[in-house]
Design brief:
With about 300 residues, this protein is an alpha/beta fold. It has two domains: about 1-110, ATPase, nucleotide binding domain (Nucleotidyltransferase, domain 5); about 115-280, Nucleotidyltransferase, domain 5, CATH 3.30.420.150. Helices cover about 45% and strands about 25% of the residues. It has helices at about 45, 55-75, 85-90, 95-105, 115-125, 165-170, 175-190, 205-210, 225-235, 235-240, 250, 255-270, 280-290; strands at about 1-10, 15-20, 30-40, 80-85, 110, 135-140, 145-150, 155-160, 195-200, 220, 270-275. The strands form two sheets. Strands 8-7-6-9-11-10 form a six-stranded mixed beta sheet, sandwiched between helices. It has a five-stranded mixed beta sheet with strand order 3-2-1-4-5, sandwiched between helices. Helix 9 runs antiparallel to helix 12 (about 255-270). The longest helix is centred in the N-terminal third of the chain and has 20 residues, at about 55-75. The relative contact order is 0.16.
Length: about 300
Amino acid sequence: MKLAAIDIGSNAVRLLLAQVFENDEGEVEVNKDTLLRMPIRLGEEAFTDGNISDHKLEMLTQSMLAFQLIMNVHDVKNYRACATSAMREASNSDFIVNHIKKQTGIAIEVIRGLEESELVFAAFSEQLSHDKGHAYLTIDVGGGSTETLLYYNGEVVDEYSWDIGTLRLLNDQVTEATWNDMKKWLRKVTTPFRVVYGVGSGGNIIKIKNLYTKPGKKYIPSSMLPLAYKHLSSFTIYERIKQLGLKPDRADVIIPATKIYLNVCQWAKINKIFVPQLGLSDGIINHLYETHYLHR
């Protein structure tokens, strides 16, 4: 069956269409058909002005209208639309949710940071091994927040949502106290484990992996991150677009994203970040299927 996920993030809004089914062995398979990305950047205003302007609302409304038409054409059986950090912070988020529902029929849920983290984690949890002494820290870097979740022996040990995101860093809105809180938490929760591997999600870590590792490699050595940060910082935004092939709305945020990953790896003593190329949209698809259709 065809399912759809709408991820209303701080930097971009995405629509993922996926065909989900159980194979002959009873295993769930997900085939991604279409992924659309609209660089609306709701966080530009939500994190600086505290609300979202009429102009951004109109861009979001038109995107949702387009998504609704595309879902109709593809005969989507069910969908879920989740909004994250920018909408959590905007003072007029309730008005926006009601407006979008009235104009497009799409019901938006403004989800908590920890729910966002859990949905992302669920998308790739089955890919992780359960070797004793090996823990995994998922790191989901967005425009407004970074979600971290520590996983060991098949269970979630601890999790936290930080107001540290790429757009906040670009606007100098992350305090030293917030960085210090993250450092203390990471050192506390990871100390009991012999080995901690990172699991990165989001477009920035995927792009970093593609730029700085060989094709087919499933992880980034954390020792590569300082080199990547230095190399990326040596280019202007225009040069990152023309010479490195970055999208305009990726070319600026990839620098603060790299800084976040670099700090997390240093403080959690991570030497590898696995990049399964899955994110919130994938987690929404999995949740939809497991909640409404699995084993019916």
